[in-house]
Amino acid sequence: MKFKFFLLAVLTVFLLPGKSFADMPEVSAGKTYFNPLKGYYVLKDNVHVVTKNHGVSMTVDANEARVNLFTQKCWATGGVKLIYDDMTFGCDKIFLQWSTKTANVTGTVKFNDAGAVKISSDTATFDWNTKVADFYGNVKVKAGKKIKIPDGIKVGRGIYSHVKYNVVENEILEISDDIEKVTIPEDPDNK
Hints:
Blueprint lengths: L1 H14 L10 E3 L2 E5 L4 E14 L2 E13 L4 E12 L2 E11 L4 E12 L3 E11 L4 E12 L16 E7 L4 E6 L15
Antiparallel strand pairs: 1-3, 2-3, 3-4, 4-5, 5-6, 6-7, 7-8, 8-9, 9-10, 10-11
């Protein structure tokens, strides 16, 4: 029995995606389950997941999460916080893909960028490669003094359908009435 477990553990290490071990997420939770055959964690209570990808670190705190090491994806629900540098996305659900450096957040999204801007919306996407966040549906913007707003774009107290924001430059790139629904893809292992 011990030999089978050892062999399974060794195979799991060799079957992990062609990434360095530095790219593997750090996970912790009150309750943790790991399925070595499918390469995923099921996490509950005080979930904390830190992903590192080429020097970029993202942290997800939530009530529950599933992290698949093979596909490099994370689904989290309940009191979710996504933290990147001085920015925080608060939401109900998140789908994070560290291989593509993207996150989809849904459900009462609240974004805070260290005094530059506060944005709330129904859904949002964040690409930490381009450093651009897109907010969709019932978007409200509270711009601070550090925010850059290009000529032709007016930020008022209105509600917008779409706001595009560069998190590094602290710049609102676009405000429009185009509506795009952000959805969280289903976790194929959660059946």
